[in-house]
Amino acid sequence: MKIHAYCAHWAPEIADLFHWAVHAISPSVYSPKQKEAWAPTPPNYEAWAERLAAKKPLVAIVDHRVAGFMELDADGHIDCAYTHPEFQRTGVASALYAQVLRDAKARHLERLFVEASVVARPFFEHRGFAVIRQNEVERNGVALVNFAMEKPLRAIE
User: Fold this and answer.
1) How distant is the alpha carbon of residue 105 from its chain centre?
2) Cα–Cα distances in Å, from 2 out to 22, 61, 68?
3) pLDDT for 10-44, tens place per residue?
4) What is the pLDDT of residues 86-135, one digit of tens each?
5) Based on C-alpha coordinates, what's the Rg of the chain?
6) How far, in Å, are 15, 20, 69, 94 from residue 99 at the CA level?
7) Calpha distance 14→125 (Å, rounded)
8) CA dist 52 → 3, 69, 70, 85, 99 (Å)
9) Rounded distance, CA 145 to CA 135, Å?
């Protein structure tokens, strides 16, 4: 696995990865209606290309395929963190997060924060993030639950 800075030619593959990752979540966690509101079918490739050009995520590549991506905004916000269903539980998200943490430290950020889905919450808790509050957000007229979480970086050496 290699972690790379974003390249525009990966945009369609990242949009598909996001869609597949959301739709692979168990219906006991998010209903099909919630998943479709979160990640509409088909993906809006033009909107994704614009978003990714602005966000410039880190991208994990495994066997010439996009295995995951993670975005770190200038203020320490982790906006997207997704792993392709075929690569989940293989260290992709951990490798991306390790690079995000190195980048955050290099930028002298005081904290990282995220709005984690129900399925992402344990990943971030395991890395020292604390839940600040539970949110109910509306996407395309459908309510979704996520968790505002943060991790102070002041004490990290």
Assistant:
1) 19
2) 23, 5, 11
3) 999 999 999 999 999 999 999 999 999 999 999 99
4) 999 999 999 999 999 999 999 999 999 999 999 999 999 999 999 999 99
5) 15
6) 21, 24, 11, 9
7) 25
8) 16, 10, 11, 20, 18
9) 6
What type of residue sits at position 145? Answer: V
Residue with tokens 């539970």: 134
| Orientation angle between helical segments 11-23 and 45-55, nearest 10 degrees | 110
Which two three-digit tokens encode residue 154?
């002041």
Gap between the Cα atoms of 2 and 63, Å rounded? 9
Q: Is residue 141 helix, strand or coil?
A: coil
Res. 155 pLDDT band, cuts 50 70 90: low
Enumerate the H helices of 40-153 as residue ranges.
45-55, 92-106, 121-126
**What is the C-alpha to C-alpha distance for residues 60 and 133, in angstroms, rounded to an integer?**
30
Report the distance separating Cα 95 and Cα 81, nearest Å.
11
